[in-house]
Structure prediction request, 545 residues.
Amino acid sequence: MWRIWPEPVEGQKPFDPLAEARGNKSYHLNTIPNIHLVFESVGKTVLDSHQQFSPVDAAILPHHTDIGPRLDASWAEIAQHSKPEVIVLVSPAHWDQGTGVLQTTKGTWNTPFGSVRTDNELVDQIRKQADIAFEPTSFENEHGIGVHTPYIAHYFPNVPIVPIIAQSKAGSTLAREFSHVGARLEKKALFISSIDFSHYLPAPISARHDEETRRVISAGNVERIDQMGPEYMDSSFALQSYVFLQRLTGCRSQERWHGQHPGTTYFVYTCSTRSPLRISAVGDIMLARAVGSALEPRDQTTQMALQRTNDLLASVTAFSDLTFGNLESVLSTKGQALPKPYSFRANPAHVSLLQEWRISHLSVSNNHSEDYGKLAWDESVSVLQEQGLNPIGGYANEPVVNSTTAGGKHIAFLGFQTLNVPFSAQKIADAINSAKQTHDMVIVSMHWGEEYQPVPEQATVQLAHTLVDAGADVIFGHHPHVLQPVERYKDKLIFYSLGNFVFDQRGEEQNRSLIATVDVWDDGSLSYLLTPVVIEHYFPRLKSW
Prediction:
């Protein structure tokens, strides 16, 4: 049967039907502006030796050369435990080049770090199942594809690619069809959606667009993406493909980074292989003092800060089974303040914020538990329980066990402090050991250490090891109000301090925080991610690096 080729567009090279038969076109990167910034960044990332990233099924990555170090960090994280047989790169067809709405090619990209070749058999297979044109010429200067090939050559040597570019008129219908084809590939594939966002806009407009983009990604709203246009992103098709693949594969999506550069903003998302259980944790939450004043009434600045926090948690913890935090202020109207420098009591109505933030478990054992006495603490615990939240710990270090079932695992939560009430390491170790006998895993909340110290003192480290030896699988620490390291001890995890999360303290270090995401696997192994956040006007937002 004769094949009718489309008429060439004015100014483009005529389509060569013999090119497909020849295949194996050789592509070079020296025509991509500032490609040296990519070359200089490849392989420079040094990952934390204690951190283990979950395998990644799909990701959203930028393609501008200006952020080479961030691209390298993203590829390094993906490469740590992902072992794809092929990488499918989905990029915009910049300037709507070519004639097909979707286009692909066969060939080799030559980089200083090795060559990256197409999986020609898979290219043919995908083209048979999806309406994708074969247009090698379109890929000669396509930086949405080319910029990633040096990282692939370095981190995934000998792994072939399937390059796909999409014109701006490609929408959700084509993305759905393509994603269904991709999800059924016989080979283990890593899907990369190569996208830049908010081009050439004033900073306030760009910020508003990015906030909306974050919401539609979290909600998986492909219909809204169809309406957003190029001022939001340079490939709605690539973004919709990510959303559809997330649905089809069941992977867990998480925002990893948001950055800005004059004229463009960037997002990095990863969709990780679904673990049986995912637990997130944040630092100290204090809803009294200046925070409480800002909440009653809420002015526009506070409303915007709260919206950023909601967006942050929706994009980072939405796919977590459990989310833990340390409640640093009782929710009560009862009691009298004790004679101490700082006493924190918050309006019980603020429990609604904890619900909005999807926090499921809260430590109520810390040095502010007794600020307004036992009656206030009892009311605070009741307020949490009535709203379906789980208080962790006792008023005076009683070994109270909260049992939770999630991800097919029976989990014991315990909470203790070393500061204001009698403390016995042996009694706590015994309580942990006892809980371990009847639960699949034990998570311990510890209010400990010295305030404002970036490194835990030796006594805290020794105590942490004792608790792990007794059976603790994960320890979430708090109280220092600044970040402290994470330790992997006997294949268990100790987060010494996640810093503040909602607080009114001043100082740069007190306003830096982390969200920890722990994946628990069938064999009991633990992997984790750390998402950096900063506190602005008392509430956190994602940190831009």
Q: What stands out?
A: The longest strand covers residues 526-536. The chain has a mean pLDDT of 93.
